[in-house]
């Protein structure tokens, strides 16, 4: 009888992204982050400030807000964070640069995923803000 003393762990895609102390090169991230048919996969971290809603309601609201060109996947992670897995660079850039995104009168924070992201932090360390100054000429 042969016993494998070091069983290979089949980590989920989510576990690989969120694993503390991720080591290796960015090439490692591309290998498990890429689509099976070679599609580009782009990740964004989402958090709804001030309120918590269910997964299905959240997915439906952002689908209606963003109106993506290609389908996207939403992954619920800890502390009210979500990962949005987008397949289109235009969708990715529009979600990051347009806004502010508001769901049920609460701001939706959106930032690109990085390997330094920690879902254990209760709030994002960097938040993009839109500021409107009335009366400011358009060329400024």
TrEMBL record:
Transmembrane segments: none annotated. Coiled coil: none annotated. Pfam families: DUF4283 (PF14111). Residues 45-120 form the DUF4283 domain. InterPro entries: At4g02000-like, DUF4283. This is DUF4283 domain-containing protein. It comes from Gossypium laxum.
